[in-house]
Structures are given as structure tokens and as C-alpha cells.
Design a protein that fits this description.
Helix content: 40-55%
Strand content: under 5%
Largest sheet: none
Structural class: mainly alpha
Oligomer: single chain
Shape: extended
Number of strands: 0
Length: about 180
């Protein structure tokens, strides 16, 4: 090799620089993956509730989450709502007996919220349901989940993408930050 010709092999400094970039990229990717995995993990609940069982019985989302069409939140069903059926259905089931214990003690079930938005975000199910968007669009096929968990990462980009896709002529309305941020 002629010492005056430039070497085609990367210099040691370039290889080290490339290695640093790769390590940083992996570190950033890992730091983003861990919170995302935490966001999409199933939350441990006080009762092993099965959406699958209820969907297979023909119960619609809005029967239990009846506040969604008329309120900003979908709501978690009350013990009274659950016991309305379970006073007579599956009364010998261990999970139903746990439910009945809350009923007898007059205590609400301390469910752990599955989908949370930050306090500064305003979201209402009402206009989304009114526009014909079904629950599965955002929450995934909860009726097929063994444990209920967030199906999607519901962040600002995801919301904007959906609104832009649904209402291309309304994008300027979305530029009003206060429509979603309070």
C-alpha cells in the first residue's frame, strides 16, 4: 500500500465514533422502550375480571361503561351495576364471590385505571362515540384480552394523526391547543 494514497478502511477514531453513536442509539431506544412497556403492561386488579367472559355473553362495552355517551369519562361500573347481574348469575364463581364481598361490605372495588391521560389533557368519549368511533379503535380488542391493558400508546401524535385522517379539512381546528389541553 502506498503511504500517499488515502486508506479506504475507516480510521480508528471513526470506528470509535461509530461505536459511540450505535451505543447511544441503543441506549435511547431502550430508554423509550422501558416506559412504553410500562405504559402497555396489564395492571394488577383487585378482582380477576374477564372482559372475554362478558363479551362472549353478549354484553356490550356501553352496558358497563354507560357514562361514556353522556360524560367526559367512560367510567368504571359500580358494584351495584355488577351485582345487578351477579345476584343470580355465576354466584358460586370465586371471582363473583369476591365481588359479592365488596357489595356486602358496602365498599367500591378499588379498580386500577388502565388508560390514563395526563391531568393537562382534556378528553371526552362523548364526541368520539357520537362520530361513530367504536371502543376498539382506541382500546384495542379488549374483549379478546385475558388481562386488560392499554392497546396503544395514546399520545398527542397518535391523536393528531387520527384526527387528521378522520377530518382532513378540520386540521386548523386542531391547531387550537386549548381544544385538548386544559
Amino acid at each position: 500500500m502506498n503511504p500517499r494514497e488515502p486508506s479506504l478502511a475507516p480510521s480508528r477514531a471513526k470506528r470509535k465514533g461509530l461505536l459511540v453513536v450505535v451505543i447511544l442509539a441503543l441506549a435511547v431506544g431502550a430508554s423509550l422502550a422501558v416506559p412504553y412497556a410500562r405504559l402497555t403492561a396489564a395492571r394488577e386488579q383487585p378482582i380477576d375480571y374477564s372482559h372475554i367472559t362478558h363479551v362472549e355473553a353478549g354484553i356490550q362495552c356501553l352496558y358497563c361503561h354507560g357514562q361514556a355517551p353522556r360524560s367526559n369519562i367512560a367510567g368504571i361500573p359500580s358494584v351495584e351495576r355488577c351485582m345487578g347481574c351477579h345476584m343470580v348469575i355465576a354466584t358460586e364463581d370465586e371471582t363473583v364471590q369476591q365481588l359479592a364481598g365488596y357489595w356486602e361490605r358496602g365498599e367500591p372495588i378499588p379498580w386500577v385505571a388502565v388508560n390514563n391521560q395526563p391531568d393537562f389533557v382534556y378528553f371526552s368519549h362523548r364526541p368520539h362515540l357520537g362520530a361513530g368511533i367504536n371502543c376498539e379503535t382506541c382500546h384495542g380488542n379488549v374483549g379478546a384480552m385475558e388481562e386488560t391493558k392499554p392497546a396503544l400508546r395514546m399520545d398527542m401524535g397518535w391523536c393528531l394523526d387520527c384526527h387528521t385522517e378522520q377530518e382532513p379539512d378540520q386540521v386548523t381546528r386542531l391547531a387550537d391547543c386549548m381544544a385538548c389541553h386544559k
